[in-house]
Amino acid sequence: MAKRPFPEPYKIKMVEPVNLRSREERERAIKEAGYNTFLLKSEDVFIDLLTDSGTGAMSENQWAGLMLGDEAYAGSKNFYHLCDSVKDILGYDLVVPTHQGRGAEHLFFQAVLHEGDIVPMNMYFTTTRQHAELAGGVFKDIIIDEAHIPAAEHPFKGNVDLRKLEALVKEFGAERIPWVVLAPSVNMAGGQPFSIANLREVRQFCEAHHIKIALDITRIAENAYFIKVREPEFKDTSITEILHTICSFSDASWMSAKKDGLVNIGGFLGLPEREFELFDKLRNMVVVYEGLHTYGGMAGRDMEALARGLRDVAHFEYLRARVSQVEYLHSRLADAGIPLVNPCGGHGVFLDARSFLPHIDQDEFPAQMLAAQIYAAGGVRSMERGNVSAGRDPKTGENRHPKLELVRLTIPRRVYTQTHMDYAADSIIEVWEKRESIPGLKFVYEPPILRFFQARFEPVG
Ligand code: PM9
Known about the structure:
The protein is α/β, with parallel strands linked by helices and 461 residues long. The protein folds into 2 domains: 171 residues, Aspartate Aminotransferase, domain 1 (Alpha-Beta Complex); 254 residues, Type I PLP-dependent aspartate aminotransferase-like (Major domain) (Aspartate Aminotransferase, domain 2), CATH 3.40.640. It has 16 helices and 14 strands. Strand 5, helix 7 and strand 6 form a beta-alpha-beta unit. The chain starts with 22 loop residues before the first helix and ends with a strand. The relative contact order is 0.17. Ligand PM9 binds next to helix 4 and helix 5.
């Protein structure tokens, strides 16, 4: 029996109508979109679980903040409010604003990497690996094996396998590994957290080998929640203290603020005082690629909303309601016998498309087709996170064939109700019941880079 979510610590003040198109219209729309949910028009979507990125609802305090935007070109007061929030909630002394996460990734990797540097990460993320590679880096995966097995139960599937990191140091030498990059709530693994115990060990290892740690803190608050409820040492620690503790193990960080920043656009890099030299380099680069170092591509009002969003997110009751809503959808689908990534992560429910559609070869993109079918069934938009997202190996040109072939049902923050979750679950169960008749897909257009955004397909046969 699905467990009822915790009630949200807020109520609804404004609503946005959505359209439920007919089955015929939905089938036409997904065909016209080349079976790629990124290419659907949002007005043709009933429940939008494509992403939790920039799709959340802001609080009244954030909306009020928008009216206090100081749109001065330089030195906007909202930038200083943002710096105060970053210091209070995360503990970083130095802030470089960017327009969103990938803007920060671009600056960071260009600033720190040399050609051929090894970049160990706890699993890849699409834009992160892309920017590391564009800066000459070579990605290596150091996440624990369980993270690659959808059904494997582990409370901290985002943890690093120290033996994998040690093996890289032995193979390449620590001098070729300037930075280890770690993400909380590992996106491609299903929103899986790391533990502080693991982070501590990684820190000790890295200090011993003079390797620095960068954190992609995009979903750090959801990871902090899992630490509080799953890591006994932190059960009485506040979310803010846990956030400070996580960040204290890093030498630099960046955030796509469109997720746990609770805003529709924005990002930043956060660094401790001791990394002033790197900060200065980033601050010089930001004016070339993003905007002046006191706005970095955001309007003053965006920075104010973010400054307030960071304070909103650090509340246990909010995080408990948020995660329990995701868990509710997960348990509705698990009850129907649908193969899922376990345990449920923080920002979405991930379907194991390989087990859902075992008759479709990975090179006929089962997850891509499953996402298309879910849309056709009920107007629910999800996202492929498998072979298409992983792209091709730059050396061999072959599909990377990731172990995880997933469809992500990503839950926007503070947007949907329990009834919406039930509706989404029912639509997916409808697809599950006719799974054997679903064919695979082939490319009709394949972009050379981050192909999942714009690729087009047609059914095989
Ligand atoms: N994540 C997501 O839907 C949006 C774009 S990719 C479909 O999950 C991490 C962990 C992310 C992330 C974006 C970025 C890039 C960096 N790190 O989208 O540029 O999940 O703000 O951030 C997306 P931006």
